[in-house]
C-alpha cells in the first residue's frame, strides 16, 4: 500500500500540471474503483481543501464536493481518523463556512 500525498488528487482536481494530468488521472481512477489501495492523512485532505479554496479560488461548495468525492474513493484509507469523521468535518466546514 502506498501513501497518497496532496499532489496527485490535486492535479486531477485542477488539471495542473498538464504534463502529469494523465498519469495522476490513471492513479485516481484506480483508487476510486478500489483497484489501487492507498493511505493518506487528514492533513492531506485539509491541505487539498485549503489549496482549492485559497490558491485555486474554487467556491466553497465546489471544493467541498470535490473533497467528499475524494474521500468516497473505495481504495482510499485514512491513517489517523475514520473517513466518516473526516467527511462529516468537511461537510460541516462548508455548511458553517469555517
Write the topology of this structure.
Layout: E1 2-3, H1 7-14, H2 18-33, E2 38-40, H3 42-53, H4 60-71, E3 76-78, H5 83-95
Parallel strand pairs: 1-2, 2-3
Characterize the structure shown.
- It is a single chain.
- By secondary structure, the chain is mainly alpha-helical.
- The chain has one domain.
- It has 5 helices and 3 strands.
- The protein has a 3-stranded parallel β-sheet.
- The longest helix is centred in the N-terminal third of the chain and has 16 residues.
- It is globular and about 35 Å long.
- The mean pLDDT is 91.
Briefly say what this structure is.
With about 100 residues, the chain is mainly alpha-helical. It has five helices and three strands, in the order βααβααβα. α1 (about 5-15) crosses α2 and α4 runs antiparallel to α5 (about 85-95).
Offer a few descriptive terms:
single chain; 98 residues
Helix content percent band:
55-70%
Chain-averaged pLDDT: 91
Q: What's the order of the H and E elements?
A: EHHEHHEH
- What is the radius of gyration? 13 Å
What is the CA–CA distance across the termini?
33 Å
- Sheet of most strands: 3 strands, parallel
Shape: globular
The counted number of beta strands is 3
Structural class: mainly alpha
Across the major sheet, the strand order is: 1-2-3
In DSSP terms (H or I, runs of 4 or more residues), the helix count works out at 5
- Fraction in beta strands: 5-15%
Poorly predicted residue ranges: none
Number of domains: 1
